[in-house]
Amino acid sequence: MSEEIKKALTVKTGQRTSYDIYLEENFDGLTEAVKTLEPEKRKICIVTDSTVASLYLNPVKAVLEKSFAGVSIFTFPSGEPSKNLDTVRELYRHLIEAHFDRKDVLAALGGGVTGDLTGYAAATYLRGIDFIQIPTTLLAQVDSSIGGKTGVDFDGYKNMVGAFHHPSLVYANLSTLKTLTAEQFACGMGEVLKHGLIKNASYYEWCINQMFEIQDREVEALKTMVLESMKIKKAVVEKDPTEKGERALLNLGHTVGHAIEKIQNFQMLHGQCVALGYLCAAYISWKRGLLTNEEFFEIRDMNVGFDLPIFLDALDENEVVLATKSDKKMEHGQIKFILLKSIGHAYVDFTVTDEEIRAAVHYFLDNGEEDEE
Ligand SMILES: NC(=O)c1ccc[n+]([C@@H]2O[C@H](COP(=O)([O-])OP(=O)(O)OC[C@H]3O[C@@H](n4cnc5c(N)ncnc54)[C@H](O)[C@@H]3O)[C@@H](O)[C@H]2O)c1
Ligand SMILES: O=C(O)C(=O)C[C@@H](O)[C@H](O)[C@H](O)COP(=O)(O)O
Ligand SMILES: [Zn+2]
């Protein structure tokens, strides 16, 4: 016989309930933005990579020195191969030697690699300290700085170790996007176009219509675009902060994308792999009769327009299928795939077969010529 049970107590988790995002055109506003953090009582450690350090460390340090009780610097070699526990370990050591306590703060100054590894260090150092995001790549401004996914790659497995840990604030300075290489700017466009594809067809069309302005990095176009993408990401993560459901849509392109990153030993850039990944998802959706011919070819051509790849070089279909199964996308033995019902409407699908993945990869190895007629 089952006994009636009654809650004895409820424990409030005390997790951060909100944080602010600033979208500015310089670093000056950081002084105002950090005021709510009581910076005069706390030390801050700026974590940044070697490339960003040479560009933006001095101005950011100068601004933070005006507010915080002390400023310390930790730099690491730029690039995805640094996003691992070795770098986090060096950061822990630096923080211990600089006597960082639970009230002190980390600042992630840079792209998604810096944000992910700094956030993870903040989530775990002394069981969790505050951190702020100062994203300097397009990808980080529109995507990785928002939502609290932090983590590192482990033994070749993408983002395999991590934690949800939200920043105390996000401060994006649009003018930093001017110094990005064309390739890095394109990577950010991979996640921007993903946002349109999963949630907002008119935003996707706006990106097509504004292609020249965006590619010329005109400030007004960038401001509108970054803000719109931030809004899409915010809306999704607010509804489902720990990816129990709808947040998985943000993974469009990441099932195959992460497999490519793994196979290429993280030598190929995340945004490019995601762009190839969503082409494969679009192909499967097209072959299932969900996307029209027009939609499928528009998605492919948009990659060309925004300098994103449409061909998979020297990849083996079977290796891709195998790699998708060693990512975090498996649930109860089934692969979690994000497909498109139409541009602007994505959904989670558990029925994608190995054969469909192989066919999609094969299509983009083959340049797609046979199917185009
Ligand atoms: N946490 C999330 O929600 C989330 C979302 C998307 C991507 N990610 C992760 O983000 C990473 C990719 O981020 P990324 O593309 O920003 O890579 P990144 O951090 O490696 O930055 C790309 C390159 O640009 C350089 N750079 C940064 N800012 C610059 C600037 N303003 N001018 C010139 N060069 C600059 C960096 O030094 C680096 O070499 C991946 O590890 C991916 O898994 C995480
Ligand atoms: O914020 C999310 O949720 C995303 O999926 C955003 C992705 O662009 C990002 O690359 C994320 O890190 C992928 O997460 P993962 O859980 O598949 O590693
Ligand atoms: Zn991504």
TrEMBL record:
<comment type="function">
    <text>Catalyzes the conversion of 3-deoxy-D-arabino-heptulosonate 7-phosphate (DAHP) to dehydroquinate (DHQ).</text>
</comment>
<feature type="binding site">
    <location>
        <position position="158"/>
    </location>
    <ligand>
        <name>NAD(+)</name>
    </ligand>
</feature>
<dbReference type="GO" id="GO:0003856">
    <property type="term" value="F:3-dehydroquinate synthase activity"/>
</dbReference>
<feature type="binding site">
    <location>
        <begin position="78"/>
        <end position="83"/>
    </location>
    <ligand>
        <name>NAD(+)</name>
    </ligand>
</feature>
<feature type="domain" description="3-dehydroquinate synthase C-terminal">
    <location>
        <begin position="188"/>
        <end position="329"/>
    </location>
</feature>
<feature type="binding site">
    <location>
        <begin position="136"/>
        <end position="137"/>
    </location>
    <ligand>
        <name>NAD(+)</name>
    </ligand>
</feature>
<dbReference type="GO" id="GO:0046872">
    <property type="term" value="F:metal ion binding"/>
</dbReference>
<dbReference type="Pfam" id="PF01761">
    <property type="entry name" value="DHQ_synthase"/>
</dbReference>
<dbReference type="GO" id="GO:0000166">
    <property type="term" value="F:nucleotide binding"/>
</dbReference>
<feature type="binding site">
    <location>
        <begin position="112"/>
        <end position="116"/>
    </location>
    <ligand>
        <name>NAD(+)</name>
    </ligand>
</feature>
<feature type="domain" description="3-dehydroquinate synthase N-terminal">
    <location>
        <begin position="74"/>
        <end position="185"/>
    </location>
</feature>
<dbReference type="GO" id="GO:0008652">
    <property type="term" value="P:amino acid biosynthetic process"/>
</dbReference>
<dbReference type="InterPro" id="IPR050071">
    <property type="entry name" value="Dehydroquinate_synthase"/>
</dbReference>
<feature type="binding site">
    <location>
        <position position="254"/>
    </location>
    <ligand>
        <name>Zn(2+)</name>
    </ligand>
</feature>
<dbReference type="Pfam" id="PF24621">
    <property type="entry name" value="DHQS_C"/>
</dbReference>
<dbReference type="InterPro" id="IPR016037">
    <property type="entry name" value="DHQ_synth_AroB"/>
</dbReference>
<dbReference type="GO" id="GO:0009073">
    <property type="term" value="P:aromatic amino acid family biosynthetic process"/>
</dbReference>
<dbReference type="InterPro" id="IPR030963">
    <property type="entry name" value="DHQ_synth_fam"/>
</dbReference>
<dbReference type="GO" id="GO:0005737">
    <property type="term" value="C:cytoplasm"/>
</dbReference>
<dbReference type="InterPro" id="IPR030960">
    <property type="entry name" value="DHQS/DOIS_N"/>
</dbReference>
<feature type="binding site">
    <location>
        <begin position="176"/>
        <end position="179"/>
    </location>
    <ligand>
        <name>NAD(+)</name>
    </ligand>
</feature>
<dbReference type="InterPro" id="IPR056179">
    <property type="entry name" value="DHQS_C"/>
</dbReference>
<feature type="binding site">
    <location>
        <position position="191"/>
    </location>
    <ligand>
        <name>Zn(2+)</name>
    </ligand>
</feature>
<feature type="binding site">
    <location>
        <position position="149"/>
    </location>
    <ligand>
        <name>NAD(+)</name>
    </ligand>
</feature>
<keyword id="KW-0479">Metal-binding</keyword>
<keyword id="KW-0520">NAD</keyword>
<keyword id="KW-0028">Amino-acid biosynthesis</keyword>
<keyword id="KW-0963">Cytoplasm</keyword>
<comment type="similarity">
    <text>Belongs to the sugar phosphate cyclases superfamily. Dehydroquinate synthase family.</text>
</comment>
<keyword id="KW-0170">Cobalt</keyword>
<comment type="pathway">
    <text>Metabolic intermediate biosynthesis; chorismate biosynthesis; chorismate from D-erythrose 4-phosphate and phosphoenolpyruvate: step 2/7.</text>
</comment>
<protein>
    <recommendedName>
        <fullName>3-dehydroquinate synthase</fullName>
        <ecNumber>4.2.3.4</ecNumber>
    </recommendedName>
</protein>
<keyword id="KW-0057">Aromatic amino acid biosynthesis</keyword>
<feature type="binding site">
    <location>
        <position position="270"/>
    </location>
    <ligand>
        <name>Zn(2+)</name>
    </ligand>
</feature>
<keyword id="KW-0456">Lyase</keyword>
<dbReference type="GO" id="GO:0009423">
    <property type="term" value="P:chorismate biosynthetic process"/>
</dbReference>
<keyword id="KW-0862">Zinc</keyword>
<keyword id="KW-0547">Nucleotide-binding</keyword>
